[in-house]
Amino acid sequence: MRILLVPTALMAAAALAACSSASAPQAPSSALQSPDAAVDLAGVCPKTVVVQTDWQPEAEHGAVYQLLGPGYTIDTDKKQVSGPLVINGKDTGVQIEIRTGGSTIGFQTIPAQMYIDKSITLGYVSTDAAIVAASDQPVKAVVSPLNKSPLSIMWDPASNPTWTGIADIGRSDAKVVVQKGVVFAPWLVQEGLIKSSQLDTGYEGTPARFVADPSIAQQAFATAEPYIYQHEIPAWGKPVKYQLLADVGYNLYPEALSVRDGDLAALSPCLTKLVPIVQQAQADYLADPAATNKLIVDAVAKYNDGWTYSAGVADYAVRTMRDLNIVANDASGPLGGMDLNRVEAAVNTFSPILRSTGATIPERLLASDIATTEFIDKNITLPH
Fold it and tell me: Given 3-state DSSP classes, what are the helix, strand and coil percentages for the chain, each rounded to the nearest 5?
């Protein structure tokens, strides 16, 4: 779960920028091309494809925001954006509605929210969340816009000049400050990357502790905090260093778009067309993110609920996702693909950790129970 909080000054700026209306069109209508058969979703998909995100609008959700066509509406009461579902200027014949997660849904897990609200078509579910949900709220991933998690551990290079990665932190006695309950913390200990004595679960999402004591290491999202700390936190205002957890073996798919397991058969005709559209939208977003980033930043400002997200962070996030292969062709080949061997390894790695926290995990959980690649178009890839 992302819990980054921002300085009061930034919240105030968002409040000033916010719109007070419950719902206001944010883009003029314009003529769209009629869909060809490959992208005509009318009659095979729900009239409105509802996507439940795992957090506030951000660049990591760019693939679905890219699908919003002209005439979309930002609903500031419900914290959602809706409009025609469009790909490459073609109207697919259905609408898309993108709902905000986090505080908007009471920090409910996405599988739980999907079972509470059956109108949700797709939800953003990480592999570990799918493992936890497998017993009572089973979901199945159908496409993964992100290939690697942006979760990382960051540190101050001036205070710790010899550190080059997480393993160096583990050879020290420095505290590693993380949010309570995150699955990667016991995993880091299990893998021998840090010592259990180093773990400090006091992270609250604010920069105060890191600024006051730069000798510590701290959890971060590579797509946000490095930029925010250098450019948007005056009390810090300098670079940090970090290493992705994914680059030391944290092999989860972080935000796979998933359906309720029991709905998979009924949604299959829709997913056969929709999943390749999502894959293409992610490729289009990375190639030209400007308009979609503007939409994301605008939605955040209008929601005015304490989360802020600047144009600078959005642009930095896209560059970082490209540069660090957070968005990349999967090892299985296509963009958005999921290597089921990797999913199986994640099940084997994280199931014991999650059981140790009290989660009920099926004894014989397979990769195919929580993910399927049947709808992935293997021909959609990012250029090398």
Answer: 40, 20, 45
Residue type, 58: E
Tokens at residue 108, please? 């409910």
Q: How far apart are CA 124 and CA 304, in angstroms?
A: 22
CA distance 102 to 104: 5
The b-or-e profile of 17-42 (16+ CB within 10 A means b, else e) is eeeeeeeeebbeeeeeeebeeebbbe
Q: What is the three-class DSSP state of 36?
A: coil
Q: Which residues pair with 96 in a beta bridge?
A: 49, 83
Residue ranges of domains in the chain, CATH in brackets: 20-146+253-310+327-370 (3.40.190.10), 151-248 (3.40.190.10)
Q: How many CA atoms lie within 13 A of 301 on its CB side?
A: 16
- Is 164:190 a contact under the CB 8 Å cutoff? no
- Rg over CA atoms, the chain: 20
pLDDT digits (tens, 9 = 90+) for 333-368: 999 999 999 999 999 999 999 999 999 999 999 999
* Burial call 174-184: b when 16+ CB within 10 Å, e when fewer: bbbbbbeebbb
Contacts for 355-363 with beta carbons within 8 Å, 24 or more apart? Answer: 356/186, 357/181, 359/131, 359/132, 360/135, 360/136, 361/131, 361/132, 361/134, 361/135, 362/134, 362/135
By the 8 A CB rule, do 52 and 113 touch?
yes
**pLDDT digits over 106-145, tens only?**
999 999 999 999 999 999 999 999 999 999 999 999 999 9
The reported pTM is: 0.92
Question: What gap in Å lies between CA 295 and CA 311, rounded to an integer?
Answer: 10
| CA-CA-CA-CA dihedral for 204, 207, 210, 211, to nearest 10 | -150
**Do 178 and 201 form a contact (C-beta atoms < 8 A)?**
yes
Q: Using CA atoms, how far apart are residues 343 and 127, in angstroms rounded to an integer?
A: 7
Residues 294-310 as b/e (b if ≥16 CB within 10 A, e otherwise) read ebbbbbbbbbbbebbbb
- Cα gap 54→254, rounded to integer Å: 10
Return the C-alpha torsion angle 16, 19, 21, 25, nearest 10: 170
Write phi, then psi, for 182 (nearest 5 degrees): -70, 140
